[in-house]
């Protein structure tokens, strides 16, 4: 004797259409949620990069031994004022640049390039270099991060590396130098950095890769930049 089996009712064309529409709606809803999440994340990243903090990689040895080639650093974008997009104007500055700050800025001779140097002279300062020694307003400027890797003193007539000035730093401008004094292309050669060209204050290393020895510089990661 055969058991009675309950027959499954067939779905009407209308029900099939409603199910397909509901499935399509759910798929579109998921796609829209992902798109919105990606857009919000992209906008947030853009805002952070523009107004808060930006990452840079050190490509040269002009700031050795403070910064090595392959160091990856974060730069505070708002401490000297937030730049209004597509202009050189800034607002809401916390403070002005100070002597000793390590800053990232647009290279005056080619704004498409970013340079990083240490502030040596601020507006109104008289800066002079005599036989590799820096003088600010007639007094020796002691920088514990300064290094010299070449003993030769270059005469003033040859180039301004070891003998320069004196000059007076103009308003809204900075005189900057690399810590690796003998191998830095800086204000001694191309002049001043104006305030509107400053991108921010370098403050920490978040990654460091030694390409020559193919290794991570673990001790550099998380180290603040003095």
Report on the structure:
- The chain is α+β, with helices and mostly antiparallel strands and 226 residues long.
- The chain folds into two domains: 12-52; 58-220, Umud Fragment, subunit A (Ribbon), CATH 2.10.109.
- 19% of the residues lie in helices and 29% in strands.
- It contains two helices and 14 strands.
- It has helices at 13-52, 187-190; strands at 53-57, 71-76, 82-83, 90-91, 102-106, 114-121, 126-130, 133-136, 139-140, 164-168, 173-177, 193-194, 198-210, 215-216.
- The radius of gyration is 29 Å and the shape is elongated.
- The chain starts with 12 loop residues before the first helix and ends in a 10-residue tail after the last strand.
- The model is unreliable at 1-5 (pLDDT under 50).
Straight-line N-to-C gap = 93 Å
Enumerate how many helices there are, as a single number: 2
Q: Tell me the β content.
A: 25-35%
> Residue ranges: pLDDT <50 for 5 or more in a row?
1-5
**In CATH's first tier, which class of the largest domain applies?**
Mainly Beta
Could you give the count of β-strands? Answer: 14
Quick one: overall form? elongated
Biggest sheet layout: 8 strands, antiparallel
Q: Helicity, in percent?
A: 10-25%
Q: What is the second-level CATH architecture of the largest domain? A: Ribbon
Mean pLDDT, nearest integer?
Answer: 87
Within CATH, the superfamily of the largest domain carries the name Umud Fragment, subunit A
Total domain count = 2
């Amino acid at each position: 004797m055969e058991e009675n089996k309950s027959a499954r009712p067939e779905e009407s064309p209308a029900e099939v259409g409603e199910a397909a529409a509901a499935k399509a709606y759910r798929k579109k809803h998921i796609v829209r949620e992902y798109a919105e999440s990606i857009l919000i994340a992209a906008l947030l990243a853009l805002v952070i990069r523009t107004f808060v903090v930006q990452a840079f990689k050190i490509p040269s040895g002009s700031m050795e031994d403070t910064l090595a080639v392959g160091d990856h650093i974060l730069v505070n974008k708002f401490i000297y004022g937030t730049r209004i997009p597509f202009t050189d104007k800034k607002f809401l500055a916390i403070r002005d640049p100070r002597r000793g700050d390590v800053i990232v800025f647009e290279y005056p001779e080619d704004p498409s390039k970013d340079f990083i140097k240490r502030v040596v002279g601020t507006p109104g300062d008289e800066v002079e270099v005599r036989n590799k020694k820096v003088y600010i307003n007639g007094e020796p400027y002691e920088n514990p991060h300064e290094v010299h890797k070449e003993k030769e003193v270059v005469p003033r007539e040859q180039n301004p590396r070891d003998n320069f000035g004196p000059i007076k730093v103009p308003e809204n401008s900075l005189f900057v130098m690399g810590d690796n004094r003998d191998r830095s292309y800086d204000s001694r050669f191309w002049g001043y950095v104006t305030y509107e060209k400053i991108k921010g204050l370098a403050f920490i290393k978040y990654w460091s890769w030694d390409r020559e020895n193919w290794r991570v510089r673990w001790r550099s990661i998380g180290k603040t930049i003095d």
